């Protein structure tokens, strides 16, 4: 399939995308954070973007969210330029950030309702939806708590509820579980992966953990620095343990290089 055909059909499509940042006073010295990245993500895929710290994952993520423009190349989300046509994608993309980014002056339910208010949903309906997502994420009884009174795991659940409540078809997540202890992180990862599949979302999930990528991804894309794809693999349900071990070994090799 040609890239042009991919671009029309893909849910998320990056073609020859580069991003550099100016460092000196005159921007004379440039830092290349992303280097000619090509990637197509189909509807319903759950893709783990894996790479070492500083390799350009968040920069790539921010270009997909429409928070940053590429220096070169094209980024398309559902056929739109997410930076130039930010408003056209309102309600179609939901984001779970590395830190929960809840508003401290809003209660748990108030934070979940916020995304719905921005989509002009009437308040009573928004409240019902927010309530049901908080319950699904095990936060019944904490609706009126403020973020400071919630644990890190609970705050992260609120931000997941906020992302799912908008019913956006694309979920973008930047290391949402990395600040949690192993057991809480493991449980939330499983819940999250189930929710994505049940609700038939397309999800891009950034991580620097090989285990997390292999546990959640249908596909793992490994990036080297500056962000460029070094290995792109689909994980089959029927894979043998030898096949999985070979994939893990290859990922480790790419990351060690
Ligand atoms: N706004 C910016 N201005 C200048 N340099 C930046 C900017 N944003 C990112 N960088 C640089 O680009 C490179 C990639 O950063 P990025 O945040 O994308 O990495 P990352 O893969 O998300 O890392 P981590 O795993 O630590 O979150 C780094 O060297 C970083 O210093
Ligand atoms: Mg990052």
Short description:
The chain is an alpha/beta fold and 257 residues long.
Tags for this model:
257 residues, alpha/beta, Rossmann fold, six-stranded mixed beta sheet, three-stranded antiparallel beta sheet, 9 strands, 37% helix, 25% strand, binds adenosine-5'-triphosphate, binds magnesium ion
Cα separation of the termini:
30 Å
CATH superfamily placement: P-loop containing nucleotide triphosphate hydrolases
Specify the number of helices. Answer: 8
CATH class: Alpha Beta
CATH-derived architecture: 3-Layer(aba) Sandwich
Order of helices and strands: HEEEHEEHHHEHEHEEH
Strand order of the largest sheet: 5-6-7-3-8-9
| Helical/strand content category | alpha/beta
Q: What's the overall geometry?
A: globular
DSSP helix fraction: 25-40%
The count of DSSP E runs of length 2 or more, i.e. the number of strands, is 9
Outline the biggest β-sheet: 6 strands, mixed
Reported by name, the CATH topology is Rossmann fold
Low-confidence stretches are none
What compounds are bound to the protein?
adenosine-5'-triphosphate, magnesium ion
Q: What portion of the residues fall into strands of 2 or more residues? A: 15-25%
């Amino acid at each position: 399939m040609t890239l042009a055909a991919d671009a029309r059909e893909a849910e998320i499509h990056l073609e020859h995308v580069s991003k550099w940042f100016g460092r000196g006073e005159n921007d004379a010295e440039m830092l290349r954070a992303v280097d000619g990245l090509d990637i197509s993500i189909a509807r319903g895929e759950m893709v783990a973007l894996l790479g070492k710290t500083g390799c350009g994952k968040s920069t790539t993520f921010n270009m997909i969210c429409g928070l940053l423009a590429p220096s070169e190349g094209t980024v398309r989300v559902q056929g739109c330029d997410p930076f130039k046509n930010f408003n056209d994608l309102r309600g179609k993309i939901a984001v779970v950030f590395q830190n929960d980014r809840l508003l401290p002056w809003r209660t748990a339910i108030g934070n979940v309702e916020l995304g719905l208010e921005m989509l002009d949903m009437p308040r009573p309906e928004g409240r019902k939806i927010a309530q049901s997502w908080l319950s699904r994420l095990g936060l019944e009884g904490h609706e009126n708590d403020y973020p400071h009174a919630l644990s890190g795991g609970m705050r992260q659940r609120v931000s997941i509820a906020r992302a799912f409540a908008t019913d956006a078809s694309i979920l973008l997540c930047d290391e949402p579980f990395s600040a949690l202890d192993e057991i809480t992180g493991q449980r939330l990862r499983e819940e999250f992966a189930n929710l994505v599949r049940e609700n038939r979302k397309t999800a891009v999930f950034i991580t620097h953990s090989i285990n997390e990528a292999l546990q959640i991804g249908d596909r793992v894309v490994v990036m080297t620095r500056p962000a460029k794809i070094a290995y792109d693999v689909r994980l089959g349900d029927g894979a043998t343990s030898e096949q999985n071990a070979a994939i893990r070994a290859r990922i480790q090799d790419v990351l060690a290089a």
